[in-house]
Amino acid sequence: AHARNVAMAFAGWGIPTAQALRQLHQALPTMPLIASGGIRDGIDAAKAIAMGASLVGQAAAVLGSATTSTSAVLAHFAVVIEQLRVACFCTGSASLSALKDARLVRAGDEE
């Protein structure tokens, strides 16, 4: 109960990765940015790249595979790579670099 009470105080701590990335990219458009935190799969990575990230870091999503085997880690990244390829295709981006120019629509935004 004690640990839970301590942890609950931090439930709203910090800035969501997408919000931080958007604000940083607007303030420093030429600065290379690394998105990390909450990147669960290739779709999250694609969104981060489209919002201006130069690199994407993944930890929690990989740790489960890492405790299993090297082949599980390789399988995880094979899925991430395929998800990135599909995201590029769906946005008409020929590469991850081109994904930075993809048009994004936030959920709830009107066109």
Automatic annotation (TrEMBL):
<dbReference type="GO" id="GO:0046872">
    <property type="term" value="F:metal ion binding"/>
</dbReference>
<dbReference type="GO" id="GO:0016491">
    <property type="term" value="F:oxidoreductase activity"/>
</dbReference>
<keyword id="KW-0963">Cytoplasm</keyword>
<dbReference type="InterPro" id="IPR013785">
    <property type="entry name" value="Aldolase_TIM"/>
</dbReference>
<keyword id="KW-0414">Isoprene biosynthesis</keyword>
<keyword id="KW-0460">Magnesium</keyword>
<comment type="subunit">
    <text>Homooctamer. Dimer of tetramers.</text>
</comment>
<keyword id="KW-0288">FMN</keyword>
<dbReference type="InterPro" id="IPR000262">
    <property type="entry name" value="FMN-dep_DH"/>
</dbReference>
<dbReference type="InterPro" id="IPR011179">
    <property type="entry name" value="IPdP_isomerase"/>
</dbReference>
<dbReference type="Pfam" id="PF01070">
    <property type="entry name" value="FMN_dh"/>
</dbReference>
<keyword id="KW-0479">Metal-binding</keyword>
<dbReference type="GO" id="GO:0010181">
    <property type="term" value="F:FMN binding"/>
</dbReference>
<dbReference type="GO" id="GO:0008299">
    <property type="term" value="P:isoprenoid biosynthetic process"/>
</dbReference>
<dbReference type="GO" id="GO:0004452">
    <property type="term" value="F:isopentenyl-diphosphate delta-isomerase activity"/>
</dbReference>
<protein>
    <submittedName>
        <fullName>Type 2 isopentenyl-diphosphate Delta-isomerase</fullName>
        <ecNumber>5.3.3.2</ecNumber>
    </submittedName>
</protein>
<keyword id="KW-0413">Isomerase</keyword>
<keyword id="KW-0285">Flavoprotein</keyword>
<feature type="domain" description="FMN-dependent dehydrogenase">
    <location>
        <begin position="15"/>
        <end position="104"/>
    </location>
</feature>
<keyword id="KW-0521">NADP</keyword>
